[in-house]
Design brief:
Nucleotidyltransferase, domain 5, 10 strands, 9 helices, alpha/beta, globular
């Protein structure tokens, strides 16, 4: 008996990327992302500008995703969308579009938690990619979130650690701003860190009990350090930029790895999966691979296209929920502070 092919359209609009993807039985046929360059000059995402850009981008992005996949709207079995968390104005655009499309096509509407999607992106069908077995530890690291999650099943997740103030991606971006780098600064710091000495400058790691994180104090320490050095030598940043970037990255990666080691120790689970935009960072990827041989972990690193906000991860969650007939109704609302 052959199973019917299932086509899922995924829509992601939680922050400043408008994305759409088409998935067939767990395999991605298309994954289109329209980024918003307008925020670069502001040094961060401007919510009102983001929601306006989503309104302009969503129809062409969905149309392109369907064309690339070689399917039409009549082939779709369900529409999955990001319900939250995220920027409310941005979420409303994607939610409204998804509800309207599902209603017009008379097909199921499926709500997706953005943070769960980062974790479940590991279950997208990819040649040669080994999926993490349950239970596993997931660490989601991005500009808006830093969490450690125990994952016992697709939809049985428990947050066991999270940031009490700023997210790790924000720590990278604010540090970059202090150094005069553009937005987002994370990729630039990563690039320069490869050319610098990670132990050139020492920054104290915040002392936070348990599995929670704090990055606010680190940002302040970096700011005061740079201000002091520049006062003594106005050319300090220019002369030492690679070393500063390497030292900042070394400290941040060290904080993340310390918490992961504690999580493995407390849970006894040594399968580690990472997700979110910061999981593209070469420092954290290297540290995880090193931990495999040092501590006997098995690490699961997603393809770069599935690390930043994308609709493929929304579509895979939609597919998993579709199989369980976990549908939403037309009364569902976007939720900016949605929890796992």
């Amino acid at each position: 008996m052959s199973l019917k092919n299932t086509y899922i359209l995924g829509i992601e609009s939680s922050c400043d990327d408008t994305a759409a993807a088409v998935l067939l039985n767990g395999e991605i046929l298309s994954n289109v992302v329209a980024s918003q360059a307008i925020h670069e000059s502001y040094g961060g995402v401007v919510p009102e500008l983001a929601s306006r850009a989503h309104q302009q981008n969503i129809v062409p992005v969905v149309d392109q995703a369907l064309q690339k996949a070689g399917v039409s709207t009549t082939d779709l079995d369900a529409v999955a969308f990001t319900q939250g968390p995220g920027l409310m104005g941005s979420l409303l655009v994607g939610t409204s579009f998804a509800k309207s499309l599902a209603y017009g096509l008379e097909i199921p509407l499926i709500d997706v938690n953005h943070m769960q999607a980062h974790i479940l992106a590991h279950f997208i069908e990819e040649d040669g990619y080994n999926k993490p077995p349950f239970p596993f530890i997931a660490m989601t690291i991005s500009g808006g979130h830093t969490q450690i999650v125990r994952v016992d099943d697709y939809f049985k997740m428990t947050v066991i650690g999270e940031t009490i103030d700023d997210a790790v991606g924000e720590a990278f971006d604010k540090s970059g701003k202090i150094l005069g780098l553009g937005y987002p600064a994370g990729p630039e710091i990563d690039k320069r860190a490869k050319l610098g000495n990670p132990k050139a400058f020492k920054f104290t790691k915040p002392k936070v009990k348990g599995l929670n994180f704090s990055f606010s104090g680190l940002k302040t320490a970096i700011l005061y350090f740079v201000q002091k050095q520049v006062k003594e030598n106005p050319q300090f940043i220019k002369e030492n930029l690679n070393d500063i970037c390497a030292s900042i990255q070394y400290t941040i990666v060290g904080i993340l790895m310390d918490k992961l080691k504690l999580a493995v120790s407390e849970t006894g689970i040594n399968h580690i999966a990472i997700g979110g935009g910061v999981s593209a960072n070469s420092g954290i990827r290297y540290a995880l691979k090193k931990a495999e041989s040092q501590h006997g972990w098995t690490s699961y690193l997603p393809a770069f296209e599935f690390t930043t906000d994308n609709a493929a991860m929304i579509a895979i969650v939609g597919y998993l929920k579709f199989q369980k007939k976990q549908y939403a109704d037309q009364s569902i609302m976007a939720s900016s502070r949605l929890k796992i």
